[in-house]
Specification:
alpha+beta, single chain, 102 residues
């Protein structure tokens, strides 16, 4: 009974509608930063901003919000056109940092 009560509060997350992730990769830790945005089919948006080479607290800030139905429909339309809804993502080309461009 106690186990049933403890697990009854757990809910399954909605499917990911559109993932986005970027970072400035090879910079020293004091300048490094990474951003992950996950938009779920139910309108939940999770923003994770990490400084340095951190991947979790205390070096990361997490925010959760619920987007309006209008915004969610616009995100669905954009995801369908651009590909993340079907798992088609585009990796941006690497570019030189610092003196590598010479």
């Amino acid at each position: 009974m106690a186990l049933a009560l403890a697990t009854s509060g757990l809910t399954k997350e909605a499917a990911v509608l559109a993932p986005y992730k970027t970072n400035n990769c090879c910079l020293p830790p004091e300048y490094a930063m990474g951003v992950t945005i996950t938009i779920r089919a139910d309108g939940k948006l999770i923003l994770k901003l990490c400084e340095g080479y951190a991947t979790d607290s205390p070096g990361c800030i997490n925010r959760r919000v619920k987007v309006s139905e209008t915004v969610l429909e616009a995100i669905r339309a954009a995801a369908t056109v651009s590909g993340p809804a079907e798992g088609r993502t585009v990796k941006t080309p690497d570019f030189p940092v610092g003196d590598g461009a010479r």
